[in-house]
Amino acid sequence: MRIIIIFLITLWNVSTSFSLIATILPSNNILDENEIQYKIKNIITQDNISNTEKENIVKQLTSALQSISETRYSEKKIEEYQNIINNFSSIIHQLHEEKNIESHSKNNKNNINISDSNKLRQYLLHINQQLTNLDQELQQEQNLLRSINDSLISLPQQHTKIKKELNDIHQKISNFSTTMSYLEQAKIIALQAIKESKQTKITEIELAQISANNRQELSKLRIELLKNKYERLDNELQMTHIQLHKMRQQETAHTIEEIETLIKTTEKIGIYSINIAQQLTINRHLSQSLKEQIEHINLITLQQRQTASHILQARQTLAKLLEQSQWIDRSPALGETLRSQIFKLSKKNTHQTQQLNHEMNKLKKNHLEYEKQIYKLSVISSQNIKNNEILSPNQIHILKTQTDTQKKLLNSLLSNCDIQILELTKLKIAHEQLKDIIKNIECAAHNYLFWIPDIHPINLSYLYKTYHDLHLLLNSNTLFQLTSAIKKSFINNQKSSILSLTLLLFICSSHITCQNKYYSFLKHSNQQLKYTNNFLLTLQNIFWSIIIAIPIPILLMLFGYNLYQSWEYPIASAIGEGIITAAPILWLLMIFSYFTSQNGLFISHFKWKKNKIKQALYHPTFFIIAITTLLVTISTCNNYNNKELYDTLSRLFFTILCICLTLITYRLKQANFPLYTDKHTSPNNIINQYLWYIMTYFPIISATAACFGYLSTAQTLLLQLETSLIIGIISSIIYYTTHRWIIIQKYKILSKRVKQTKHIINTKKHNISLLPKSYTKTNNTINIPTAHSIIKKNIHDLSNNDLYHISNQSLQLIRLTINFITIVIILSLWSELHYIYVFLEKTTILDTITSIIVNTNNIQPITIKKLLTITLICFFTIKFTKYLPSLLILTILQYLNFTPGTNYAIIILTKHTLILFSIIISCSHLEIEWSKLQWLIAAIGVGLGFGLQEIFANFISGLIILFEKPIRIEDTITIENLTGHVTQINTRATTITDWDHKDIIIPNKEFITKKFINWSLSDTITRIALKIPGPPEINTATITHIILEAVKSCPLVLHIPQPEVYLINLEQGIPLFEIRIYTSNIKHRMTVRHQVHILIIHFYKKHGLQIPFPHIKHINTNEHNT
Questions:
Q1: What is the dihedral of CA 911, 914, 920, 921, to 10 degrees?
Q2: Are 712 and 336 spatial neighbours (Cβ–Cβ below 8 Å)?
Q3: Mean pLDDT value of segment 237-245
Q4: What does DSSP assign to residue 274?
Q5: Which of 158, 717, 823, 867 is the most buried (most CB within 10 A)?
Q6: What is the CA radius of gyration of the chain?
Q7: What is the DSSP letter of 972?
């Protein structure tokens, strides 16, 4: 019976297995989505499969579904490409017919026969909606054409990659055996689905390559067709606006005519009323406002059309730039044409957004005023009804007609205000779109046109053109435009002009007075620095040097802004823009000149050599004026009249500027100005020399490049380099200021420690003076000089070793931090030159799998840029953790009343936190997910469980010691017959220095798992027990009093707790006393024993007592008996 049951169970298992395999394997090797979904449901309902295996099978089948959907998409694209190849002639013929129809309808301008203004507005909204849709379609088609052009490069690479992946899949399928588990069956289904997807994708790519030219031609035709439709609708929109404008003019004219008729009727009848006269005046003003509103609406409509035209032009320029990017380097004329188009586009969207916001706020204000007038009008009407007996019937009729007309006017004004706000909002959105497109164009131009010459090289005709343009710039028209612009700014804005003049006079007078006070302050602070080393004087010097340099640049910026607003005078506007550009540079140069003055920051505070400073800046005022003037001139020539003077005067003055910069940087190099300092705070290093070589010779290279036609590239690179130089000088000033602060802090700590040491010396002298004279006479030559020598040695060690080490490490950390910040700022500055970073971003060193989704690996490449970033993070983390403790001690911990152990715990935890954050940042930069790190952590856990358990136990014990603090730095402990004080608590072990000054390394686990004594955990007071014999013939109370008197006269014995004396034993008839005394530190134990023993001997002799010796007394007794 049992055999039959076992046979039936086995048969059932076999049948179940076959049914499961049947549910997993596809029928006839054809993959169907519905069938796979049905199999997934069946697998979930099975009970004889573990949950983990179920999840893996479902993941594999889900991956198969995803691959099938990709196959369906590729099949659709194949059908689309095949249709284009087969029916290309008919499709292109159809597009040509549509294009001809659009051209014919565009030429036939039909008038719009809509007499109702409301219906006309609705029709206008309908056309606007159509234009928006067409604009989106046009943009999508341009993006499609761009993607087709890009695919011509990427498709062959994709084809090779997918073929390789397909071969790998074939290899994986062939590796499976005939007998497979459920999971292996699911994996085969997933691999088959991926194989079909890849095969279909290869066919798609091949057809995409074949049909690329046809699709390009069709896309270009569609773009032309959409442009024709857009132009037709735009013309229709213009005609609608014209008709709506005519209707508004007619309505306004009709309203004004009614008002004039009422005025004439009133004058003929001769009826006069104050109310009627007031209403007539108000209606006249309202009708005039309505007329102005209609004109403003028409102006907004015109601006909308212009902005839409600019947007279309910008998109065409961007498309042309991207399309012709591969031929730009072969044709400089093409690059120059594209540059001029981009420059014109960038000038079309200047200051429009602020102006539109101002107009919208003004319209909202007018809207509120009109609503108030309607409310007042209703109040006036009710008052007139109450006072009907005052007015005649004709007057009441006229007044009612006037109020009705006024209501119509106000309602029209309100509706027009709403229309204006709506149209201005549309115009603002269009301007934002134009701004975004211009940004994209500038970014693309920077990528494709940066290394392309923008002007022709210098030839024989250059001198004549330069002379002609110089004569054009310096003629009488320039002076006339400048004077006219200044007059206009004063006449149009009288209030602001008066305010500007007042501010000008105030700034000039305050600058003159403050400059005299500034120089007197420098002289006074220089005298103070001879006697006191106060860091506050350094900060005041920096602050007042920055403040005193502000007035002149502010004046120039105000003057330049007034000129810049004069749009109708191009040369004045260009000069104003140049002044605004040069004003910040002038401010920085003036600050630098104040720093280099006789009593300035560099000489008085940084103690730099005066002769080198004078050598570097021999005539600072001349160079400041020259550089500022050249910058203004170059900016003027760059911005004047679509770069009319760009290739002549701009190149000439740029070359002169390069010569001036070379002279200045050469003098700074000769003076050995510190751009980079080594660890000894010295600029005499090879990096500083090479940096100055670059700064000196690069302007000459830029001038040479400008002569060969690379003017824009040379200007951009020189601007970046000089900005980097300014950043380097600022970082150097910050470093030397911090260096001075650290030196002052070091001297403060040193003086504080000297005072403490002096206090210790005085205390010891006082304690020694309290000792008996016989004691001091006998021990003076030994003890007192020893104490003095130890104290002096401690002072020498603290000043020369401890503080020097702390300040040096703090300086290294600050230097490292400043260099790191400077490098980051300079790299972000130079990141605008994308060609430098494209190589770093595109060069892949290694591909890593950051996550696995079923059978799809999420591959993240490790590029050179990522590797360099992680290297920098690791380097700076190591340096920071090395130098951070000294900076914390010098800046924060010295002001906090923490124990040395607490300070050490703060430092260690800060270092560990810094290391943890650097690891997290590095992993996030590599895009490593937790799913990848958990295996590493699991492996570390296994390792900790076997070979690394002792190290891990010591590490955890070290953390427990830092948090729980059973031992601290400078604690005195005893562990296993070893006594010493704690000098270091590291991650793995603790260092103890014993009384022989030997360093013993003890693992941290010993302090957690074993018993030890901490003599100074809660208190440093320790008890000492001494045994002293007393003469038997003397009263015990007298001996106790003498011993207490001797003990209390010892300066190292504490009075609280009080010393205690007990008779503890009688040895051979001699009373034995135990002294229990307390001292403040365990280090004094031996000294206290020594001093107390000497004092007891002294007091015994003073009272005529002798210390009894049992064996001597026994010998004396035997002699007496004999």
A1: -150
A2: no
A3: 74
A4: H
A5: 717
A6: 47
A7: E
Q: Helix (H, G, I), strand (E, B), or coil: what is residue 671?
A: coil
Which residue is it, tokens 């309202």? Answer: 286
- Whole-model pTM over 0.85: no
pLDDT at 587: 92
Q: Maximum CA pair distance of the chain?
A: 171
Structure tokens at 818: 């400043």
CA distances from residue 846 to 162, 861, 863 in whole angstroms, order as listed: 19, 6, 7
Round to whole Å and give the CA distance between 471 and 877: 60
- At residue 779, the pLDDT reads 45
Helices 332-346, 393-448: inter-axial angle, 10-degree rounding = 150
Of 985, 1017, 1023, the closest CA to residue 1004 belongs to 985
Amino acid of residue 1119 = E
User: DSSP alpha helices (H): ranges in 798-863?
Assistant: 803-830, 834-842
Question: 473 is written with which tokens?
Answer: 């710039």
pLDDT at 685: 84
Helix (H) or strand (E) holding 154: helix 117-174
Task: Place 701 in a pLDDT band, splitting at 50, 70 and 90.
Answer: very high
Dist CA 357 CA 347 (whole Å): 19
Q: List C-alpha distances in Å: 663 to 56, 553, 584, 696, 717.
A: 73, 24, 21, 8, 18
Mean pLDDT to the nearest integer, 14-33: 46
The DSSP result for 756-800, as a single string, is HHHHHHHHHHHHHHTS-HHHHHHHHHHHHHHHHHHHHHHHHHIII
Give whole-number Cα distances, 1064 to 549, 992, 1026, 1031, in Å: 86, 37, 11, 15
SS3 at position 844: strand
Q: Which of 737, 500, 435, 745 is nearest to 602 (CA)?
A: 737
Residue 336 tokens, joined: 């120059």
Amino acid at 377: L
> What residue has token string 């319209």?
363
Strand partners, 1014: 973
Measure the CA–CA gap between 802 and 149, rounded to whole angstroms.
Answer: 68
Q: What are phi and psi of 983, to 5 degrees?
A: -110, -25
Range scoring the smallest mean pLDDT among 4-18, 96-110, 715-729: 4-18
DSSP lists the bridge partners of residue 1024 as 1077
CB 1106 within 8 A of CB 1031: yes
**Tokens standing for residue 703:** 């001038």
| Residue 242, token pair as written in the block | 């014209």
- Residue 857 clears pLDDT 60, i.e. is over it: no
Find residue 55's DSSP bridge partners: none
Peptide bond into 1110 cis (omega under 30): no
Cα gap 1000→989, rounded to integer Å: 10
d(CA 1111, CA 1117): 10
Residue with the two structure tokens 């000492």: 1024
Amino acid letter, residue 41: K
All domains of the chain in start order, with CATH: 2-218 (no CATH), 273-448 (no CATH), 462-673 (no CATH), 929-1018 (2.30.30.60), 1022-1121 (3.30.70.100)
Cβ(612)–Cβ(541) below 8 Å: no
601 DSSP assignment? I
Token pair listed for 9 = 């169970």
SS3 label, residue 200: helix
